[in-house]
Each structure stands twice: as C-alpha cells, then as structure tokens.
Fold Acid phosphatase.
Amino acid sequence: MRISRSRATVVAIAAALTAVSVAGPANAAPRHQDDDHLTPDTQFVMEADGSSGLTAGGAGIPNIDSVKSTIRTYYGATSAGIANKTSSPYIAEITGIEAAALAELPTVDPAAKKAIVFDSDDTTLWTYDMEDNAMHFTFNPALQDVWVQAKKFPATPGMVDFVNAVAAKGYTVFGVTGRGAAQKDATIANLDDLGYTGFTADRFFTKWATGQQPSYVTCVTAKCTTVEFKANTRKHIEEDLGYDIALNVGDQFSDLQGGYSDASLKLPNPTYYLPSADLPGLDEPKLAPRTHFTMNPDGSSGLTAGGEGIPNIDSVKATIRTYYNADATGIANKTTSPYISEVTKLSRQVTNTYVNQCRAMSRKGEKPAIVFDADDTTLWTYDMEDNAMHFTFDPVLQNDPWVQQGLFPATPGMVSLVNAVGEAGCTVVGLTGRNDLQKDATLANLAKVGYTQFTAANYYTKWKSGVTPVPSWMPADSPCADGVCTTIQYKSAVRAHVESQGYDVIGNFGDQFSDLIGGHADSTVKLPNPTYYLP
C-alpha cells in the first residue's frame, strides 16, 4: 500500500520542535498533538508548463490523485473511468456554452461564405472514456488509433445539434484536427455515424502524411507546431478558399491561437494539455490557461469549479516532474531537485531537536519512540509511481518486483535522521500500510539503503485479509478488530499499542495526512508528496 505536505510543513515542523523540546516525567501520560493542522492545501498557483514545480514546494502542487478525483466528479465518471453520458457538471457546462454561442450567431446568407471551424477530439468527438478508462490519463498513440479506426467515440455533449444548427444558419462547417491523414476517413465516418451533417472530406483537414506537407503551411522549423498547422490551415480557408471564419471552436488553446478567425470558442477539457508556441509576433493573452485554482482533496470541487477551474492533469504531471527533476521517462534525479532540497532541509530542521530529546529521556529511564512510515517517508517510490505505473497504482507491480526485490532508494535525508534518533536512545518504530507478506522484504530494503535502527519486533505491517490474521493485541472494541478499517484507524491503533508498552511516541513521520491523524503522538512531521493521496 502506498502510504502532499501539510497546509504548511513549517506548521508541522514548528509543532514538532515545540512538542519535543520539553520532556515529561517517565510516568506521565503521553502528550498528544491535535489534528487540526493536518489538512491538505486547497489553494494552488500552477503555471501550465510545469515550471511552478521549481518553487511551489510539495504542498503547493495539486496532488495528482485529488486531481483525478476532481476530474471524475466533473465528468460524473465511475471509479472505472467511464463518464456519465446523461448528466454531469461537464455536460451542464458545455451545453450551456454551446447554447450561449449559438444564440450569438446570426443567420447568414450561404453565399456570404461565412465559416465555422471545429477541432475533433473533445470538440466534436468525446474522448473521455478512452483517456481515463483505457489510458488512465497517459496517452498511448497505438491505442488511440484503435479507437479512431473502430469509430468508438461518442459525440461531445450537445455538439451534434450545435454543428447542425450553425449549418442551418448558413455557415459552412470545416474540420481541422491534429489527427493524422491515415485517420481521416475513420474520423469523418465516426462523425457521420453520430449524426453530424456538415463535415465533408474536402472541408476536413488532418495532419499530413510524411513528406506531404501542403504548400500553404509554412513553419519555422522542419517540424510544424500545432498552432502553425492549424493557423495556416485557417489562413488557407480564408485567403485561398475565400471564406470568412466567423468562429473557431476547440478544447485546447493551441486549437485557437494564431488568428485567422473573427472569434474563438474554448470548450473545457482538464484531461490533457497540448501546448504550442504562438505564431511569431502574436500575443494573445486571453488564449492562455488559468494559473489559480481551488481544489478540495476529496474531488468535490469538480461539482462546482468548471473545467477551466480544475488543474489540467498534464500540467500537474509536468509540475510534479519539475519538482522531482524527473526526466521524460519518469525517473527522478537522485542528486538535485526541488524535492530533495525541501525534504533534506526538513529532516535537518528536526534532527537535532529529536536527538536531544531522545538522549534526555533515555538518560532518565524513559522510553521515547519515534514512528516512521515506509513509502515516501523512509523509502522513495517516485520512479515506481511515474516511470513504472504512470501515476496509476498497480498493487501487483508494486509487490513484485518493487517491494519483494527491494528496489526503492532511501528517501533523501531520512537515513541519517532515523539512525541518529535511534543511536540517541529512541526506539525506532516502523508503521506501514504494506502487508505482512511484504514485511521481510521491506526490512531488507531498509537495511540495504543504510537504515540500521529498524527491527522486526518494532516494525508493523498490516494483516492481509484472508491470509494473515489481525494482531492478537488489537482491542476487541477497535474498528480494526474484524480486519476492516481505515488507514487512520489502523495506524492510530498501532501507535496506541506502542504507547501501551510504556513508550512515549514523541514523533510521528509520514508523507500522508492519514499517517499522522488519529493522535497517539506528541508531534507530527509531514513530508511532501504530490504523487498520490491516501485519505
């Protein structure tokens, strides 16, 4: 089990420093820190290009699991990633946009050669089920081609009526899509099957096949950008074919940049982001993504935020990769990154205080203990999460090879901290959501990367339902007694058990708020982790 930094890690650090600076008598009841500050951020500033990862800190990056939950709420999607085709905030928003735009379009004489240009994906054809259910928000061009050739896409909600209505108002309909030439016939057939009546082969433009770039498209380099292709195609429609493009409709800003239309209509789409440099000399500040977001961690913001108010998942991935200084394949830099700087600074800030308290209490005959989570607290899972799993958790892959073969490096800065507090007299306790069958491999991994203070007797893994039993020490009235309980219930019960053995849990370290909530610790230290969220 995988186990966002707090609203301000500084708050957690300060609480830890305050709590551990004063040691109580050996027979005193353990002091417990309240959980009020253990809540994720809800306000974010994020540039679309991922550059915010250089400065935002882990807490300031939208957690990718929360982003997925928010997107699914917006689309009314099931946990399997299938969008509701009847009712959702997305359907309500996009059909409202279409109705408002249609009301603004006057009826025209077809002889006037007024045109409206439409993108395909998520403008006329709805790709959500492919993006979420089939691809898990990681684009796969081979799989996309299967969907295209099989004409599997439903219509974007309300768009069949919109396109047919503008055609009835006298406008000529054009399609301009980034799909390839080999997908043109299947795309038009998919549109026809859904009831679109305005698209014809001569007015439907795809990216050209290799070596067949049309003369009307000129590009700065050998590889044309999306804006260069689409803007030059619109220029061709206007200047060579003699139309006036009254409206250009797309779900990406790169569909709309570059001019050659009287107006643009942006449709919401937080499920991917396709950026492209604008044409040289053009400045279109209105055609740019939002940078300020409000997002609750449970996904509920998808009910009210609107598509543009949801952090785009591709921008979130780019921001996370910048934060971890990860390469394009999802491998984190192990030497230098904003993440390494932040987590090592955090560990240095608390080490001396905890070491001093461990020494002071142990000299008095007391039994101080510090609890450490595993994943992304002592063992660093980033390469598995991004490179191996593409931010979609796979318990089979997590178990083998990653856990059983001990492939995780140490979380930066944590080996020295854990070893130091153990050597200073604190009992080091491991507490992880990994299961009992993963305990030996986890301890071996910890030892391999340099931890010396973890022991089997003080390392707690969770029972595996139907395979390993609930611990005999679990109280009969505990929510976990029947083997089914939340992470918070499980971890707080273990900390209570540790205390029942006479220990004072002076510190509790974790990367998830669920590692820390539930008391039975004098202080908590939250490590940053925007790569998953376990409430």
